[in-house]
Amino acid sequence: MAGTETHYSLPLPEFDKAPKLLIVVAPYYKDIADQLVAGARAEIEKVGGTHEIVEVPGALEVPTAIGQAFRMSNFDGFVALGCVIRGETTHYDTVCNDSSRAITLLGLQGACIGNGILTVENRAQAEVRAAMDGQNKGGGAAAAALHLIALARRWGGARRSVGFLPDTDEFQIASGNKGPVA
Question: Residue 138: which of 26, 48, 61, 63 has the closest Cα?
Fold first, then answer.
């Protein structure tokens, strides 16, 4: 049983500059979501990080909100939280697969995301996975995001521009160039 196994967890990374994370949570099962958020907040605070929390209607909206924030804000990373419990229809499969796929695609674009969207068969499984004194999957998702942020900072640095340079007076003044651009 997954509830009785133990797993190795990497030690949390250390940061020179505190990371800023966005926790995006779908509180469809509010009590489960609250436990996931508590675990995520605790992990972020352990490294001196800061966070903001936004709520979205369901698990399918979590990656959309992260995608918007990734493009339009200054967060270092993201924590995706929610819970999908199998029901009587195939909607469960759609929600699980599509939310996971979208989060993966955002990660491949460079977003540092820890995925803590639970996909379970029943409420009992969700409760064990969400509880901070249980599997603490919210904390695990935050830890994953923190590790990805640390890697991004390690491999980051100044990005080189690609493409054409603008032929404008502003560019020439900003670049210290007094004559025509060759």
Answer: 26
Q: Identify the three-state secondary structure at position 180.
A: coil
Instruction: Provide the 10 A C-beta neighbour count for residue 116.
Output: 31
With 0-12 CB in 10 A as exposed, 13-18 as middle and 19+ as buried, what is 181? exposed
Given the residues 7, 51, 91, 147, the one annotated as active site: 91
Tell me the CA end-to-end span of the chain in Å, nearest whole number.
Answer: 68
Q: Look at residues 122, 130, 140, 139 and name the one whose alpha carbon lies nearest to residue 32.
A: 130
Pairwise pLDDT comparison (79 vs 3), residue with the higher score? 79
Residue 7 falls within a domain, yes or no? no
Q: For residue range 164-182, list pLDDT tens digits in order.
A: 555 555 545 555 555 444 4
In-domain check, residue 47 = yes
- Give the pLDDT confidence of 10-45 residue by residue, as tens digits: 999 999 999 999 999 999 999 999 999 999 999 999
Question: Is 118 domain-assigned?
Answer: yes
Could you tell me if residue 55 is inside a domain? yes
As for how many domains the chain has, the answer is 1
In this structure, what token pair is assigned to residue 7? 């797993």
Residue 7 annotated as catalytic:
no
- CA–CA distance, 172 with 180 (Å, rounded to integer): 8
Of the candidates 59, 78, 47, the residue with the CA atom closest to the CA atom of residue 145: 78
